Fold:
Amino acid sequence: MKTSRATATYPVGMRAVVIALSVAISIQAMLPSTATGQEDRAARNAAVVAVLDTGITAHPDLGWRIRPNGSGRPGGVVLPGYDFVSNPFSAADGDGWDGDPSDRGDGVRPREAVDRADCRSRVSSWHGTNVAGTIAAQQPSARPNLGIAPNSRIVPVRIMGRCGGNTADVAAGILWAVGEQVPDVPLNPNPAVIINVSLAGPAPRCPLSLQTAIDTAREKGAIVVAAAGSSARDTVAMTPANCTGVVVVGAVDEDGERAPTSNFGDEVTLSALGGDMATGERNGVFTTTNTGRYRPRNPAMGYYQSSSAAAARVSGALALLAGQNSEATAGQLVAQLLANTDPFATGQCDAGEGNCGQGVLNLRRLIIST
Structure:
C-alpha cells in the first residue's frame, strides 16, 4: 500500500490539570456504577479497544508498568501494544518503530523547539494515558466510575510523539490494531473491535492510505472512533474526521452545549461530554495521567478536556456494549450507541442544526440499559 509521510497529524487540543492521587475526587461519581453481578460474564467477553495515541505511562489504575531497564510491561487492563512513531525525535526513545508503546513524553523544551519551525515548546500531555483511563481504568472504591468499561482491555498503539506524527504511521497503526500484517512487525495477538483515534490534522480530504486502513478495519468488523478536533473548525477539512465510515465525536460542556473549541460539521456523528475547563478545572473529564513535565515521572489523576475526551467516552460506551453482547455486529453496536443519545435543545449546537451530530451521548442511560 502506498503511503505518504508528508501529512502531519497532531493531538487534539487539550489542557490538563494534574492532582495528587491521595486527594483525587471524580466529577463522574454521579454515574451509576458499572460493577454489577454481570462482571464475570463481561470479563469473559472483554472488548479490546486499540488506543492510537501518544502511548501509555505506568499507572496503578491501568496496570502498565515500567521494568528496571526502562521498557514497558503489560498488565491490568493493558495488553501488549506497539510503537509506530517512525521519527526518532518525535519518538524520544532513540529509534523508530519498536515493540514498546510506552509514552516517552510529547513535551518539547524551549531549546528543542528553536530550530523546528513546525514544532512549538510545550509540556507533555500524557494524552494516551488520559484516553485509556477514560475508557477502561479500574474503579477503586475512592474513585468510582473512573473508567467507563473497566472490563475491557486496552491495546496501546503509539502513533504520536513530540511535534505530532504522520499519516503513514497512523495508517500502519490502524492496520496492526485489527490484526493485519504490517511488514517487519509481529502480528497483534489481540485484534481490536474498537479503535479510538483522538487526533486531528488539517487535510482537504482523507488521505488515501488512511482511508484504506479504515476500510480494512471496518471490513474486519472493527469500529473506528475519531475525535472531531478542537480548533473550532469545520470537520470537512480535518482528518480523520473527514474519512468515510468513521464515528466522529464532537464535544459538549456540562450543560450540553457545544464546547467552544469543538470542531463541527456534517461529518460529526454525535457529541459527548468533553468538558470546558475555562469555567473551572473540574468541568473537565477526570482521568489517569502523569506528573512529569517533559518525561514521565509518577502516576497521578487529573482533568482534561476536548473532543479527545468525548471520543474516549464514546469508545468506552461502545466497549461496554460490546462486552455485553460479543455477537453484535459493528452496525448493531453503533445503532445501540446512537439510541442512547439525547437531541440537542435549540441553541445548544451553536454551529447550526446537524453540525454537532445526532445528539449528545446519555451515558447514564446507556450504562443502566446494559
Notes: The two ends are 40 Å apart (CA to CA). Residues 8-369 form a domain with the Rossmann fold fold (CATH 3.40.50.200). DSSP finds nine helices and 18 strands in the chain. The chain has one domain: 8-369.
